[in-house]
Amino acid sequence: MARKSKENNINLIAEEAGVSVASVSRVLNNHPGVSERIRERVMAAVQRHHFSPDRATERRLRLCVLLGTGDITDYMSTLLTGMNLAAGEQGVELSVHPCHQVSGPLLRHCRDWRADGVAVIGGDALFGELPAVGLGGLPCMVLNGLVLGDGIGSVCCSNSALLLVLKHLQSQGHRRIAYLNSVPECRDYSERMKIYRDFMSSLGESPDQLLVSPYPIGHIEGIGRDMEAGYQQTMQLLAREHEVTAIVCANDELAVGCYKACADNGLRIPQDISVTGYDDQSFAKYLTPALTTVRQPLAFMGRRAVHALCDVIRGAEAQPPHESLMPELVIRSSVTAPR
């Protein structure tokens, strides 16, 4: 049987890097417990000789998916569904980690889990560590967020679609439009809040008077926290503002809580008050009345993130891309002209 030439032999890589063959194997398989100094020496030798291990010894690629919250919401599950479908197409493994499971430096955590690439969903708290991960040789994709740096890409939706919602309400005759915000430190929500403020100011209305601050939901465990927040925020709004004709919610889960608060105050949607959401989560069209909202292609975004990471890991692309998608306004029956 023909043997590999010296130029493409793992023993040569080990000799040049001054390490054992076993250490070369651990580096090539992203095994934990290898120092960054040894990893850099081995990879430098691998690149000089264009070394490629026998396919029979290759393991499946593994992507580490980091979640910025412990709750797997409908929003996150749709993104993960798209990622899982793409992982099946690409023959890679997904390893899902809520951010509270990350202890120590993020790069070390990803190395310990033998990750070949990293995807981040709603992980604003982890963004500061991503440049080190990218520089450490692990390509990253951020979903609905933006971090700049070598080895870091993103796929996100423009928040400008909120302006379509506001203009639709204006076209129906609404001016007293309230806004339920969520997690102001999140980039998406802060951008949407600015769009709301600018639009209301252009109408001559006071955005501060009609903007409802996020309800503190840290004490609520499990899925449904935004629903409770939407309920509490709407109750606060209706107790102080009696001339509001429409409520814009920063996401669809807030809208669910808003629906119940309106009902508890004897208000019919849309006859007495119009309500809109954002995201077009799976339940939005099944609410009564069906929710007018903004559709983000979440499943496609998940698929795109996985394909982009695989392209970089396998050498088809040098860097992960930055892509921005345009969502669409979905008009249903939760909006009508004010009485």
Layout of strands and helices, then pairs:
Elements: H1 10-17, H2 21-28, H3 36-49, E1 62-67, H4 74-90, E2 93-98, H5 106-112, E3 117-121, H6 130-135, E4 140-143, E5 152-157, H7 161-171, E6 177-180, H8 187-202, H9 207-210, E7 211-212, H10 225-240, E8 246-249, H11 252-264, E9 274-276, E10 293-295, H12 298-313, E11 322-325, E12 328-330
Parallel strand pairs: 1-2, 1-3, 3-4, 4-5, 5-11, 6-7, 6-8, 8-9
Antiparallel strand pairs: 10-12
Helix pairs in contact: 1-2, 1-3, 2-3, 4-12, 10-11
Question: How would you sum up this structure, described in words?
Answer:
40% of the residues lie in helices and 15% in strands. The chain is elongated. It has three domains: 52 residues, 434 Repressor (Amino-terminal Domain) (Orthogonal Bundle); 125 residues, Response regulator (Rossmann fold, 3-Layer(aba) Sandwich), CATH 3.40.50; 135 residues, Response regulator (Rossmann fold), CATH 3.40.50. The strands form three sheets. Strands 2-1-3-4-5-11 form a six-stranded parallel beta sheet. The chain has twelve helices and twelve strands. β8, α11 and β9 form a beta-alpha-beta unit. The protein is of the alpha/beta class and 339 residues long. α1 packs across α2 and α10 packs across α11. The relative contact order is 0.13.
